[in-house]
Amino acid sequence: MREFFITALIDMNACLILQDREGHYVCITTLPGHWTLKPGVLPGDTAIFGAGIGARLAELKAGLSKPGDRAELEIAAGDDTYFEFRCRLVEMGNHEVYMMTVVIDRTEDRRRERLLRALLREVSHRSKNLLAIIQSIASQTARYSGTLETFLSKFRGRLHALSQSQDLITDSSWRGAYFRDLLKQQVDRYVQENGDLVRVSGEDILLTPNASLHVGLALHELVVNAVSHGDFLARRRPIEVSCERIETGFGPQIRMTWVEPLGPLGDEALVAARTARFGSTVLERVVPSSVNGRAIHRLESDEVRYELTFSQDNEE
After folding, report:
1. Considering the entire predicted model, what is its pTM?
2. DSSP for 227-246?
3. In the Enzyme Commission scheme, what number(s) does this protein have (predicted)?
4. Of 111, 225, 249, nearest to 157 (Cα)?
5. I need a surface site. Which of 19, 88, 92, 293 has the fewest CB within 10 A?
6. Which CATH number fits domain 110-311: 3.30.565.10, 3.30.70.660, 3.40.50.300, 3.40.50.10490?
7. Using one digit for the tens of pLDDT, what is the confidence trace for 275-315?
């Protein structure tokens, strides 16, 4: 059984120490590599673990008086390592009372706990940002909606676009989302049977989480406007969308371009189209300000052009 128990202790990454009532070491197994016992030196808490830890263990053990009493102590042993000391008085079959100490390496546990706390802080931070985005969208939607029905319709669409983008971000372990995936989400939802009429070129750039949410929102607005107020489906003239990295005086940036062809519009039709399409400030204010970028949004007699330029390493 000796080999069995020693193997089990090694697998548990644990060390077992047994002392008699006078504190003399009777047995010690699988001492952690962090500590060593010099040849010729009698084993003891101070001899093995040093004066500091030895004093803390002595104080801990002094508080145990009868069999069954137990106490625990966690020690940072340096080099980002942590050990838990579990001390307990036990009565053996010969009615002798011994002090049993189990030393367990908790380094990986503590590292996982720190990582989990960091992840929870990150989730909390991003959740607050997402709620702020939703609040902003609700406010802007309400400001430019004449009726409750209009507000609900627009707000639900925008909220769904955010939800889709957030799914992509989550699937990537919060790295962000690829531009073409963001575009495909909106195309599949609104023009699935005519997806060939939205052509994409340029790089498939991985956008930061913050940029992903807002670029996805911009693409939602553009697709909805095109379906609701455009004629590209009837004329079978494709929309051209591109995404590329560019160098500017502000450093490397990303530029997204949307070019939607229109049939010839007279002056009155052009004014009516601008009124219908430009009722929302999402494309011109909300999105560019949220990514610290700038936007150009023009409706001419023969096309709609939207350009969004923002920093490559943009983040909330």
Report:
1. 0.69
2. HHH--HHHHT--EEEEEEEE
3. 2.7.13.3
4. 225
5. 92
6. 3.30.565.10
7. 555 446 789 888 999 999 999 998 887 889 999 999 977 65
